[in-house]
Fold this protein.
Amino acid sequence: MQGKSSELRVRRANYFGGEISVPGDKSISHRAIMLASLSSGDCRIDGFLPSADCLATVAAMQSLGVNIDVLEESNLGPECLLVHGRGMVTGVPAGDIDCGNSGTTMRLMSGILAGQRFTSRLAGDESLSQRPMGRVIEPLSEMGSVIKAEGAKGCAPLAISGGKLKGIRYELPVASAQVKSAVLLAGLFAEGETTVVQPIETRDHTERMLDLFQVRTRTEGKEISISGGQKLEPCDFAVPGDISSAAFWVAAASVFPGSQLKISRVGLNPTRSGILHVLARMGAHITNTVASEGNAENCGDITVYGGELRGIEISGDIVPNIIDELPIIAVTAALAEGITVIRDAGELRVKETDRISAVAENLRAMGADIQEADDGMTIRGGKPLRGACLESYGDHRIAMAFAIAGLFASGDTLIENADCIAVSYPGFENDLKLLCSGVEEERERNPAK
Ligand code: S3P
């Protein structure tokens, strides 16, 4: 592996395995900053993910007058933060709040800002400014805020005039944890009860973390309710490693002959760990041990032994659980024997890029047999992959998925515009080198507190 600042060059690996830990969970880091900021005191957050996306949330909260101190920093960035919560009412931001590339920042912040009695403006980069925001505007408007989408086709920038909100019952038209969370956060500020009905279960970090901050939510099947006016009690929080980052290594090791890999202290929340079940169905040898169930989130170690994989069909209720892992699952399917069919994953088209067409373009360029569908793809695995010059499409997960593909390809694979990887996994390139070299992890991380 080598490269210019925004290029990543990968060669076929002779070895893949070892022991590693991955940086903090992205979804959980965002929520920890937001809820700590809304709490009425000081909260220490350990294992924070210092990625571009999560730092956008830190900056957003700082622009609302929340003081956040860095207590410890690793070579990746600030990993232990002290958030001085200022209660449910935040300060008025001096200018636009820049959400960068982060959909989670924009959508969850919309929910919080809908409950504030001032006008604010959320902006994002080119990719975020093309992503659908109607899905949060609709319920938050129904609750009583006035949100104007200033971009084309109902997209960001969003001008939010918050105010007095009322509780609603809202049936999500798409299975989205971001929309669910935006509505629940707005529900904190609303009069009466707010209920969100999910078509399919999505990641439940917001509900778990609200509980930790002593806010009561009620979950009955796919319905989650919250009563407005509850206060958040400050608390400390240790963020587990991100299973969506671990997924790249778990997938690579699963299909790398003779590989042995151990990843420690990974988040094993059942609404996120579907990747392990999908790979196991493909024939992977994976074990995981939940070491702690405290601190709102399950956390433990994953062990993988490499072998041969086979194609499977992936559709239905599992899809939201593995939505961020589908690019690396598609790469793994190309390395497996037989046919993999992915369906019900139309949401992939509105992620940081259109991930169905990005995966199809890049896999095809490497010689794989892949057919696109509106809501997924069909991959006929087992064709040898050849190195190619590939676009990341500015999408961190596309860049990382194809860095893994490069480990199995003949010749060099060059991933252009790879600096987007820092959106979710700063240190990815270094970890890739470590796992291909057999050298033990040398990065220092905050141990679980
Ligand atoms: C996220 C939810 C998912 C996921 C994203 C993070 C979250 O998005 O793709 O990376 O933190 O809630 P959707 O809610 O749009 O499905």
